[in-house]
Design goal:
8 strands, TIM Barrel, 2 domains, binds 3-methyl-2-oxobutanoic acid, about 270 residues, alpha/beta
Length: about 270
């Protein structure tokens, strides 16, 4: 029996596939906590990624590598409690699926059981095939992630655009086809040439969600804190800022500090 609210029709992996089939664009954002996830969901987003970018955005690490399975589950369960409509996808953190497929399956099951998320996302192609197959066969929806895969940053050495050379582009197309054929429900393409992303979206059946991959894919994803302008330092070319929350939050807090110092807050109406 379902406990979902009768008024809200939940977005599922099938909804996203139908959207691609109808040529309707899919909107996706990251979220890591209850309060912001609630607003993101209320705004009508189709899918939320509890990204391992939480490692950078929430914890201040330089890379996504340090975040643990338990920390991802904490973030994901907070998001799940807030969301009424969007599909919630949870990143499998570095080190929880690359070792072997048994370990990968165990990690994915832990995420699904303890966070209540609806799907997992994994970075990589051929090299993680066995783990993808195992997780899918347990009935867990998997989203792939190719192009710039931040968990491999020490292999790449930089965060620059991937797959500009023909050989890497061909390999990416092969990996995308493989993930689609295995039964993944979607694929994130990060920071690759727009013409390549277009080709992938036209070639494979499943929805392709881009970040820095142009607009001829099936949908877009951005990191929430970047697009809301909470993080001011990160300024890649693909990022559009939709708000300047850094300035708004800073000025609100400065005003509060000032009011406390001048004993203007609390006033008579704000006390008992
Ligand atoms: O962790 C993350 O935020 C991501 C997106 C950039 C796609 O993987």
């Amino acid at each position: 029996m379902s406990t979902y609210s009768a008024e809200v029709k939940r977005v599922t992996t099938h909804t996203l596939q139908e959207m691609k089939n109808r040529n309707e664009k899919i909107s996706m954002l990251t979220a890591y906590d209850f309060s912001l996830a609630k607003i993101v969901d209320e705004a009508g987003i189709d899918a939320i990624l509890v990204g391992d970018s939480a490692s950078n955005v929430m914890a201040g690490h330089e890379t996504t590598l340090p975040i643990t399975l338990e920390q991802m589950i904490y973030h994901a369960s907070s998001v799940v409690r807030a969301v009424k409509r969007a599909l919630v996808v949870v990143d499998m953190p570095f080190g929880t699926y690359q070792g072997n497929s048994t370990e990968a399956l165990k990690s994915a099951i832990k995420i699904m059981k303890e966070s209540g998320g609806h799907a997992v996302k994994m970075e990589g192609g051929q090299e993680i095939k066995e783990s993808v197959v195992r997780i899918l066969s347990a009935g867990i929806p998997v989203m792939g992630h190719l192009g710039l895969t931040p968990q491999s940053i020490y292999k790449f050495g930089t965060y620059t655009v991937r797959a500009k050379e023909e050989q890497e582009a061909e390999r990416l197309i092969e990996d995308a086809k493989m993930l689609s054929d295995l039964g993944c429900f979607g694929l994130v393409l990060e920071k690759i040439p727009a013409h390549l992303a277009k080709k992938v979206a036209e070639t494979i059946q499943i929805p392709v969600i881009g970040i820095g991959a142009g607009n001829e894919v099936d949908g877009q994803i951005l990191v929430l804190h970047d697009m809301l302008g909470i993080n001011k330092e990160f300024k890649p070319r693909f990022l559009r800022r939709y708000a300047d929350l850094h300035t708004i939050i800073l000025s609100g807090i400065k005003q509060y500090v000032d009011d406390v110092r001048k004993i203007d807050f609390p006033n008579e109406k704000e006390q008992y």
